[in-house]
Write a structure and sequence with these properties.
Blueprint (H helix, E strand, L loop, with lengths): L35 H4 L35 H13 L21 H7 L2 H4 L11 H18 L3 E3 L5 H18 L7 E5 L5 H8 L3 E5 L9 H7 L4 E7 L11 H10 L3 E5 L19 E3 L20 E3 L11 E4 L5 E4 L1 H7 L14 H37 L17 E3 L10 H10 L6 E2 L9 E3 L7 H20 L2 H4 L12 H6 L8 H8 L1
Parallel strand pairs: 2-3, 2-4, 4-5, 5-6
Antiparallel strand pairs: 1-7, 6-7, 8-9, 10-12, 11-12
Helix pairs in contact: 3-11, 5-11, 6-7, 11-13, 12-13
The structure holds pyridoxal-5'-phosphate (PLP).
């Protein structure tokens, strides 16, 4: 059986797989729930006011002529509908979320408490600067921490996510090249192991993207990269630690070569939690790097945000960063450097990325997280994230193919593949089996450099007991996949929905509900 040092023991499998279906479709306290349109009716309403006098409409010919078509439900029906749906969500507050490259980790409630203090939560971005000195102080203090932790020169706080930060960094690089009269540098080199947002960002900013291959141990092929450098190369974008969960040991050498060839180095720092307090990207020659506050510095994420992706900048790039930014004056007062003053202070800025100053709630959470950990605590974050990932890697390498395990320890995430599974079994089957075991699946089929990849990022916040339970579950599923257990092919058996046609859903998404009559007509 699995490594079980913490004393956690698997219980007997849940009964119910062969039970007769229930009258309601519910499975014990796991309740089925139809769409709200299927339970409510446009004929009923949750309120019983008598119709009042209808005031004259001022909408002119914009007045709605057909009924709005919203289902009417009582308050209790509405509350139950959404509560039932909420119980079908998997969440970091329910269990381990091993998604690689996502850093789904516990968000200490202290950060929430601080972010919700009225003095922070209720400020308005258009308030006069003198009335929000505390909020600006938080932004400024966080900026100072980010600069210090990364060994960089400046930071743009306003980007609202990792990918948005990448765009910010690439636009700063573009502005710097144009200022030098080298706008003809149009190529951005992106290693195969990069996160998908990197090539997308470079293409979006008008650059041509060229792939750089990975070598056999999952890192950038440095020789191939050096060979490609030249007068048409604007920048390289390197994820470090990369999406194989490995540290790019040659980064300093790569930076020196890129600089010598007249280009800039963009580092994707979304995985900063693996190195925070241990490595300063500025020392590795990085010119621009985004930090995902919603990953490294906690904060809930997933489900569309909110995120925050500040970008630290080297001395060479800082003058080209976006507005606005904060600056602490000699008298302690914090000034917001906006367009109006930029003529003198920041003439080379590429412009503005967002309407206001960024995600205030994220800034407060991140600063609360940083201050509650302290410098030594942050270092421990990186050490624990790496320790946990290596614990997962070494506990499973005997049962799962681990393509880079021979290359030494991993960083914050462990990578496995489906090599060795019985014919017809793949990563998706292991993922579906994990759902039956009560876990959100790991990242699947990414990064592309590993066939049938399974990328597991346990993060530093999981206990050894939680890791042991997860390892036991993945071990059991892997053993079933290797043995060709047919019931794994139809997993999950205990979830409200089993295998969906994901290709059909992606190719022909049905985004609006239509009454069954109309659906039947459409099918004819
Ligand atoms: C998460 C992530 C991103 C993108 O960040 P978003 O906030 O989702 O835009 C980019 N690169 C890496 C390596 C990541 O892990």
């Amino acid at each position: 059986m699995s490594i079980n040092a913490s004393g956690w023991k698997p219980t007997s499998p849940v009964a119910g797989g062969n039970a007769a279906p229930t009258f309601t479709g519910n499975k014990a306290l796991m309740l089925e729930e139809p769409l709200i349109f299927e339970i409510g009716s446009t004929e009923t309403t949750g309120v019983d006011f008598a119709g009042g006098d209808v005031a004259g409409s001022r909408l002119g010919d914009l007045t709605r002529t057909a009924p709005i078509g919203l289902p009417g439900l009582s308050e209790q029906e509405t509350v139950r509908h959404y509560t039932r749906l909420s119980r079908q969500n998997y969440a970091i507050d329910l269990g381990l979320f091993p998604l690689g490259s996502c850093t789904m980790k516990h968000n200490p409630r202290l950060n929430e408490k601080v972010a919700r203090m009225p003095g922070f939560a209720d400020v308005h971005p258009l308030q006069p600067v003198d009335t929000v000195q505390g909020a600006l102080g938080v932004i400024n203090e966080l900026a100072v921490w980010l600069i210090k932790l990364t060994g960089m020169h400046g930071v743009a706080m306003s980007p609202k996510a990792g990918a948005h930060g990448e765009l910010c960094g690439i636009l700063a690089i573009k502005a710097a090249l144009e200022k030098r009269g080298e706008g003809h540098r149009k190529v951005v080199l992106v290693p195969e192991s990069a996160h998908g947002t990197n090539p997308a960002t470079a293409a979006f900013a008008g650059f041509t993207v060229e792939d750089i291959p990975a070598n056999a141990d999952g890192r950038v092929d440095t020789a191939a990269l050096e060979a490609r450098l030249g007068p048409d190369v604007a920048a390289v974008m390197i994820t470090n630690p990369n999406t194989c969960g490995l540290f790019e040991r040659d980064l300093k050498r790569i930076s020196d070569a890129v600089h010598a060839a007249g280009g800039y180095v963009y580092c994707d720092g979304a995985n900063f939690n693996a190195i925070v307090g241990r490595v300063r990207p500025g020392d590795l020659g990085v010119d621009a790097m985004h930090i995902n506050l919603h990953k490294t510095f906690s904060t809930p994420h997933g489900g569309g945000g909110p995120g925050s992706g500040p970008v630290v900048l080297s001395e060479a790039l800082a003058p080209f960063g976006p507005l606005p930014f904060t600056a602490r004056m000699a008298d302690g007062h914090i000034q917001l450097i906006e367009e109006e003053t930029a003529g003198d202070d920041h003439p080379d800025t590429f412009g503005r990325m967002v309407a206001f100053h960024g995600q205030m709630g994220m800034f407060t959470r991140a600063l609360a997280y940083i201050l509650s950990h302290g410098a030594d605590g942050l270092k421990q974050v990186a050490e624990d994230a790496v320790l946990n990932a290596n614990y997962v890697l070494r506990s499973l390498e005997d049962v799962l193919d681990a393509p880079f395990a021979g290359a030494g320890p991993c960083m914050h995430e462990a990578i496995f593949s489906d090599k060795g599974f019985a014919a017809g079994f793949s990563t998706i089957d292991a993922a579906k089996g994990l759902i039956d075991e009560g876990f959100h699946p790991m990242t699947m089929y990414f990064p592309l450099v590993v066939h049938g990849a399974m990328l597991v990022e346990p993060t530093e916040t999981e206990s050894r007991a939680a890791l042991d339970q997860f390892i036991g579950a993945l071990r059991s599923v892997a053993e079933r996949a290797k043995a060709g257990d047919p019931s794994l092919k139809t997993a999950p058996h205990f979830a409200p929905r089993a295998r969906l046609d994901e290709t059909l859903a992606a190719r022909k998404p049905i985004l609006t509900w239509k009454p069954p009559v109309q659906q039947a007509e459409a099918a004819e």
